[in-house]
Structure formats: C-alpha cells, structure tokens
Fold this protein.
Amino acid sequence: MKNNLWGVRMKVCQFCGFERKDSDKKCPSCGGLNSTIAELIAEEEANIEKYSFKGRCKRILNAENSKDAFFHEVELIKSGLTNKGVFTIFLIVAFVFALVISVL
Ligand SMILES: [Zn+2]
C-alpha cells in the first residue's frame, strides 16, 4: 500500500493492475472486487452493528433530534419487519421510555 501525490491511499487492482483508491471496492477499470477477507469481515461487522439494537440506540442518541431519529429507525425496522424486528422495536420503545423517564 502506498500514498499517491494527494495523500489518498492507493491500491493496485489485483486483477488488472489499475491503480485505484483504497475506498473503491470495485476496480473502476475492470470491475473486479478487491476486498480482502478482512475487509469483508469488517464491513459485515459494521453492518451487523448498524442493524443491531446497540447500533440503533447509538444512532438515536447521537442524532441532534432524538425523536426524529427514533421514528426514522422505527420506519427502517417496519420496512424489514421480522419477529426479531418486532422485538427490537419493543426494546427501543422500552429504552426511549426509560430515557424519557430519567430526564423528567
Ligand atoms: Zn481491475
């Protein structure tokens, strides 16, 4: 791995040798996927975190408008509703309820 003139981390495509940005998973030249297994795992973990109860609570707490963020999360969950989703909604409602009670 090396830096180019602009300090952007560059990698070379493992298929065609085209110099691509580190953040580009797909080679702009040949379209080959250049993710290493470690990168794929990190991505997967980020996704799991994103859709986990912890991740959702973190987003709600970090949002400037917690109420809007909360309803946004509820909408997201509704769009992909499963038994687990219903449980997550219940947890979030309980969490927000506890939060409101502690503020009051
Ligand atoms: Zn390529």
Notes: The first helix runs from residue 37 to 51. Residues 52-103 form one domain. The first strand starts at residue 2 and ends at 3. The chain has four helices and three strands.
